[in-house]
């Protein structure tokens, strides 16, 4: 639907959680090893659109952890609440790492420079100057985003195949109503953020021509294949 | 490759510089990270690549229950702090599964065997405590997309997402014993013992939909390709 983006929050079909289930889950959480999840330290809000269709746009709440200075891995939810739906994930890498990618991989990755400098990518709840400390790094990175749940078309379950997503690269792409909705809900002004971030710079080598779907678009397709032949005896590895 | 060797290759996957830590402490204090706090369980199990079922991996699921019929899982290749985010799995009740379109059902796998055989475990949670949840899970179906193939040594997440399948009690679906032994050794458990005792008592579902585990009855597996296309757009890109 052109010009109008329905920001739908899926109502997942199902019975409310039974008490016994909920109690068990509290018990298990205290006993177990949550290593990788404990590394998640940051909430970023941004916008994605489908790599084959810019007219379908989604507000995306990223919860990110650093593997190291050059690499973050993020879980993406439709909202930052207790009942947020896990709709996708994103990997964020430094320009240095991006340049090591094979050329046929680079199109999957989008740049962050415009959305950071434009103010559209922000950290809810964090004061401007503190955000800037980190966002000036994000400004130079590339991201690979895959969504599994097409909530913008009203799916109440994660149907279909994964979708490669892209990010804002210039003015005029983001729907004003989406922008205003986020601004009012999070009490921020993209215009103000833009001023604060004017000093920031993007990747040292500029936006790579193969990034951002090589400037065209990408579509995922499902292919049926014959299953690989069975090994007659499972091998034992040392 | 049976799995990542934790002694050596954790250092290189992904490549990158050590982190500077300071501001991340600040971020965590100011932001509530609510969806992450809703992850209530860690489960360890095994999965197979649909397009090559000879490739099998140990997975670490961090599970959030949305309601009695629906779970969403962030999946990592390890439960320690260096674990890489390798994908997402959604788990639904048989009730929800039966309402899916048959074409959609092909992308899902059943969990009964995984649970009955003791392959799926909740580390550090006594079997008796986990029992109600295991009974519930035995009747569910899962849809698991893998976005980072660390088992083949990828240092960064490359390529399109891959569909994963669950262990099944027939040739292609059998998990290699060495993989299971390695996992069991790490958690000091015995999958064999589990089969003979606690899991024996868990009821099999009366019926598993033949559209699930599609390869079993149809000999066909699935792969995702990504094709360059012209992005539908209402503004210039990039």
Summarize the structure.
The complex is a heterodimer of chains A (238) and B (238). Chain A is an alpha+beta fold and 238 residues long.
Helicity level of chain A, as a percent range?
Answer: 25-40%
- Oligomer kind: heterodimer
The helix-and-strand class of chain A reads: alpha+beta
* Domain count of chain B: 1
What number is the mean pLDDT of chain A? Answer: 89
Q: Classify the beta-strand content of chain B into a percent band.
A: 25-35%
Cα radius of gyration of chain A in angstroms? 20 Å
CA-to-CA gap between the ends of chain B?
Answer: 39 Å
Low-confidence stretches of chain A: 1-7, 231-238
List the helices and strands and how they pair.
The complex is a heterodimer of chains A (238) and B (238).
Chain A lengths: L18 H13 L3 H4 L3 E9 L2 E16 L2 E7 L8 E8 L1 H5 L9 E3 L1 H5 L10 H11 L3 E6 L15 E5 L8 H11 L3 H7 L14 H4 L3 E9 L12
Antiparallel strand pairs in A: 1-2, 1-7, 2-3, 3-4, 4-6, 5-6, 6-7
Chain B lengths: L21 H9 L3 H4 L3 E9 L2 E16 L2 E7 L8 E8 L1 H5 L3 H4 L3 E2 L1 H5 L10 H11 L3 E6 L15 E4 L11 H11 L3 H6 L17 H5 L1 E9 L10
Structural summary, described in words:
Chain A: It comes from Coffea arabica (Arabian coffee). Chain A: This is Oil body-associated protein 1A-like. The complex is a heterodimer of chains A (238) and B (238). Chain A has 238 residues and is of the alpha+beta class. Chain A is 25% helix and 26% strand. Chain A is built from 8 helices and 8 strands. Chain A has helices at 19-31, 35-38, 95-99, 113-117, 128-138, 176-186, 190-196, 211-214, and strands spanning 42-50, 53-68, 71-77, 86-93, 109-111, 142-147, 163-167, 218-226. Chain A has a 6-stranded antiparallel β-barrel. Chain A is globular, with a radius of gyration of 20 Å. The relative contact order of chain A is 0.19. Residues 1-7 and 231-238 of chain A have low confidence and may be disordered. By secondary structure, chain B is an alpha+beta fold. Chain B has one domain. Chain B has helices spanning 22-30, 34-37, 94-98, 102-105, 112-116, 127-137, 177-187, 191-196, 214-218; strands spanning 41-49, 52-67, 70-76, 85-92, 109-110, 141-146, 162-165, 220-228. A 6-stranded antiparallel beta barrel of chain B has the order 1-2-3-4-6-7. Mean pLDDT of chain B is 91; it is low at 1-9. Chains A and B meet through helix 1, helix 2, strand 2, strand 3 and strand 4 of A and helix 1, helix 2, strand 2, strand 3 and strand 4 of B.
């Amino acid at each position: 639907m052109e010009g109008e983006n329905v920001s739908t929050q899926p109502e997942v079909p199902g019975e409310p959680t039974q008490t016994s289930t909920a109690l068990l889950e509290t018990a298990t959480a205290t006993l177990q090893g949550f290593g990788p999840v404990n590394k998640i330290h940051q909430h970023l809000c941004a916008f994605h659109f489908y790599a084959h269709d810019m007219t379908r746009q989604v507000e995306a709440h990223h919860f990110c952890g650093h593997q190291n200075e050059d690499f973050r891995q993020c879980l993406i939810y439709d909202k930052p609440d207790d009942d947020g739906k896990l709709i996708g994930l994103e990997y964020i890498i430094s320009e240095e790492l991006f340049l090591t990618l094979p050329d046929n991989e680079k199109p999957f990755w989008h740049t962050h420079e415009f959305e950071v400098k434009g103010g559209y990518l922000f950290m809810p709840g964090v004061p401007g100057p503190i955000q800037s400390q980190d966002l000036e790094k994000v400004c130079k990175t590339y991201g690979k985003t895959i969504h599994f749940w097409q909530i913008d078309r009203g799916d109440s379950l994660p149907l279909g195949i994964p979708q490669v997503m892209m990010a804002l690269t210039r003015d005029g792409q983001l729907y004003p109503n989406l922008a205003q909705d986020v601004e009012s809900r999070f009490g921020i002004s993209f215009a103000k953020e833009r001023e604060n971030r004017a000093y920031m710079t993007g990747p040292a080598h500029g936006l790579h021509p193969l990034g951002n779907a090589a400037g065209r678009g990408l579509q995922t397709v499902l292919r049926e294949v014959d299953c690989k032949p069975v090994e007659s005896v499972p091998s034992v590895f040392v | 490759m049976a799995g990542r060797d934790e002694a050596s290759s954790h250092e290189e996957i992904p490549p990158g510089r050590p982190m500077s830590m300071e501001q991340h402490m600040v971020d965590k204090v100011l932001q509530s990270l609510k969806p992450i706090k809703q992850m209530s369980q860690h489960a360890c199990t095994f999965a197979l690549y649909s397009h090559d079922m000879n490739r099998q991996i140990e997975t670490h699921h961090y599970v959030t229950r949305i309601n009695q019929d629906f779970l969403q899982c962030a999946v990592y290749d390890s439960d320690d702090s260096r674990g890489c985010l390798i994908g997402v799995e959604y788990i639904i009740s048989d009730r929800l599964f039966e309402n899916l379109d048959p074409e959609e059902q092909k992308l899902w796998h059943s969990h009964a065997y995984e649970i009955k055989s003791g392959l799926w475990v909740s580390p550090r949670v006594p079997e008796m405590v986990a029992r109600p949840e295991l009974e519930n899970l035995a009747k569910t179906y899962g849809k698991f997309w893998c976005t980072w193939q660390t088992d083949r040594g990828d240092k960064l997440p490359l390529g399109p997402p891959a569909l994963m399948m669950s262990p099944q009690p027939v040739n292609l679906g059998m998990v290699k014993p060495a993989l299971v032994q390695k996992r069991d050794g790490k958690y000091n458990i015995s999958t064999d013992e589990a089969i003979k005792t606690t899991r024996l008592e868990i009821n099999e579902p009366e019926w598993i939909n033949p559209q699930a585990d599609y390869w079993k009855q149809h000999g066909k597996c699935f792969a995702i390709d990504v094709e360059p296309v012209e992005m539908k757009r209402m503004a210039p890109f990039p």
